[in-house]
Write a structure and sequence with these properties.
Elements lengths: L5 H8 L12 E6 L10 H10 L4 E7 L3 H13 L5 E3 L2 H6 L5 E4 L3 H13 L3 E4 L7 H13 L4 E3 L9 H9 L6 E9 L20 H5 L25 H5 L1 H12 L7 E7 L12 E6 L6 E6 L16 H4 L8 E7 L2 E4 L2 E3 L5 E4 L7 H11 L9 H19 L2 E2 L2 H8 L3 H16 L8 E2 L3 E4 L4 E3 L3 H5 L17
Parallel strand pairs: 1-2, 1-4, 2-3, 4-5, 5-6, 7-10
Antiparallel strand pairs: 7-11, 8-9, 8-16, 8-17, 9-10, 11-12, 12-13, 13-14, 15-16, 17-18
Helix pairs in contact: 5-6, 6-13, 10-13
């Protein structure tokens, strides 16, 4: 997160009604402290970031694993701060001494925690992706509206980077019409390993609470924490982990507060045999009009000899980039393109660089909590739901797909020139890693009704089964919030 001075914080928060907590403070509870395994611990980072905002007090921490919770409670004590510990988020939400919550749980808990928080009269700052599936994302929006709560959904594309300002430059017609929007997540990851049987559940964790809305399953991976990202009952793969940030930026670029009517995905989990279920390579076509979104995930290094190196491989040494972007958005227009916070002509010459004018997301959240205006947020519940929906659409097409030869895939791509070019580059990347291209999964072109948020046409019965999930009582996302 960018370094922000106290003066900037105060200016961003502005004049606010004195309605919250002792001394008008916003009293915050953090749900999901997280483990530091493999770079996790998002809850710790969010808690420490919120503590820096004037007028905010972190007063409660919640995590079903004492191995995560207890050290952070002790750290607060060392810092001279009292914080109430919880293992059950329902007990935290019952507290009258908490005004708002920050939800940093695994994905499968995001929506239910948000709905319950809204019902308990709390405002919510929820980490990406907003939801684990399409149904529960819509329920988040309904709960926020019904109970009049402020719900902020995070995304790096809405952070103060200058990207929004660069987009506005394109929207004003300075680069001509937008032809397509290309999202990239080139983030090399190594195998999560393969276990020979169910692993022991750590004695420090309440596994029933951790599982929550998901079924209670045997632990079939080495690390319970973080590696849930690559297991379907809990996570959404890399496109829902790192990818959601730039997927949200892609949707910002097409300027449509709706889902597309068609989606098609190609990909696979290549180069290693491990306990992960989600693809590490994914190419997605989202059929927005007049400019489609093409999104690509590359989870392998360029050189297969690097597969055995550290968990997160250095981008510069291993990954190709497009227009200088490795994780982010490129908006290709007739007369140039936007990449990160800059505008370029088609020869790659810099036209203009843009500085941010919007506050950090956590600051905008606190400002909205005080003003009671969702318009003060950089991204509210609806925006979070719509962008997460694109992730879910992509994964549903993939999960309904089957391995297909490249000839068949090229036939499906048809006359979509930009998609064909990006597919060819992705195939070159896979071949550099020794991947048999005939093992690529080709997902069907699915038809989606944005109004009902249900699938229609071919494969609709199978696809609609993945719009929601079977919930485990009492951890049920309700039909009526």
């Amino acid at each position: 997160m960018p370094t922000i001075s106290r003066r900037t914080f105060v200016a961003a928060l502005g004049a606010a009604p004195a309605v919250l907590g002792a001394n008008d403070d916003v009293r915050l509870g953090v749900i999901g402290v997280g483990s530091t395994v493999k770079g996790g611990g998002r809850g710790k980072m969010d808690a420490r970031a919120f503590r820096k905002i004037p007028g905010v007090r972190v007063v409660a921490l919640c995590d079903p694993d004492h191995a995560n919770l207890d050290p952070e409670v002790q750290q607060f004590a060392k810092d001279g701060l009292k914080v109430e510990p919880y293992t059950d988020l329902r007990r935290l939400l019952d507290s009258k001494d908490i005004d708002a919550v920050c939800v940093t749980t695994p994905n499968h808990w995001h929506s239910l925690a948000t709905v319950w928080a809204c019902q308990a009269g709390k405002d919510v700052y929820v980490e990406k992706p907003a939801s684990h599936n399409i149904f529960e994302g819509r329920k988040m929006v309904e709960a926020a509206r019904k109970y009049g709560r402020i719900v902020c959904c995070t995304s790096n594309s809405r952070s103060p980077t200058g990207f929004r300002e660069a987009l506005q430059y394109a929207f004003e017609g300075n680069l001509g019409q937008i032809r397509y929007v290309y999202g990239l997540d080139f983030n090399a990851r190594t195998s999560i390993g393969k276990v020979s049987g169910p692993q022991p559940i750590p004695k420090t964790i309440d596994y029933d609470l951790w599982s929550g809305p998901a079924p209670i399953l045997p632990l079939m991976r080495e690390f319970l924490h973080y590696d849930w990202h690559w297991i379907w009952p809990y996570g959404n793969g890399d496109i829902g982990n790192m990818g959601i940030h730039s997927m949200d930026g892609c949707r910002m670029a097409v300027r449509q507060d709706t889902a597309p009517q068609h989606v098609m995905t190609f990909g696979g989990r290549f180069a290693y045999d491990d306990d992960g279920q989600t693809p590490n390579t994914e190419l997605v076509y989202l059929d927005y009009k007049p400019a489609p979104i093409i999104y690509e995930v590359r989870g392998l290094p360029h050189d297969k000899s690097l597969l055995s190196t550290a968990w997160n491989v250095n981008y510069k040494q291993t990954m190709d980039a497009y227009r200088g972007v490795r994780i982010g958005v490129v908006v290709q227009c007739e007369g140039g393109y936007i990449a990160a916070n800059s505008a370029f002509d088609n020869n790659g010459s810099l036209i203009r660089e843009f500085q941010s004018t919007n506050p950090p997301e956590n600051v905008s959240f606190i400002r909205a909590v005080r003003s009671r205006r969702s318009s003060d947020l950089t991204g509210d519940a609806l925006q979070g739901h719509l962008s997460a929906t694109l992730v879910h659409l992509a994964n549903i097409s993939y999960r309904l797909g089957k391995a297909a030869p490249q000839g068949e895939i090229r036939e499906r791509i048809g006359g979509r020139k930009e998609l064909r070019t990006i597919d060819e580059a992705m195939c070159d990347h896979l071949q550099a890693n020794g991947v048999d291209l005939n093992m690529m999964v080709a997902g069907p072109m699915l038809t989606f009704d944005p109004a009902t948020e249900r699938f229609a046409g071919e494969f609709h019965e199978e696809a609609n089964k993945l719009v929601s999930r079977e919930y485990r009582k009492p951890f049920v996302v309700p039909e009526k919030v």
